[in-house]
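Technical note accompanying the year-one report. For the benefit of new consortium partners, we illustrate the data format agreed upon in the data management plan: each record pairs a sequence with a structure-token string. No post-processing was applied to the example shown here.
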Amino acid sequence: MPDPSRTLEVLVVEDNPGDVKLIREGLKRSTAKLPLNIRVAEDGEQALNLLIRDNFQPDMILIDLNLPKIDGQTVIQRVRAEGVDLVSTPIVVFSSKQHGIQEVLDAGATAYIVKPSGLTDYLKAIEKVAVLWLQPLSKPADSRD
């Protein structure tokens, strides 16, 4: 269980710089009072290096499926299969791809959110991700339900 007094770590795995900017904005809006560090991997290979080789243990992973080098679904499968200590880490797929949702969930994703096309809805979707998975981590363990 994360220590609420430390900075929450989020790994964003996304190759589109515009999406990265929007994701950062949405996360920061909804976690303004929380200490938050956002690291970005621009492709699946970079994400696996961080998670497996460097043993980076984020509090949440937000990942696109359509990535260069190694796709997002393969990243999820490898992370879950390699025995990386991320069993309780939510892996939230945030992708424009609308098919194969059940396959991705079966591979080990915690949730699958289809990227909205409008700016306002996009930011709201990211804010909901933060409210669901990051804000609860900031509360003391004995106050969580």
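Partners are asked to follow this layout when depositing records. The chain has a mean pLDDT of 86.
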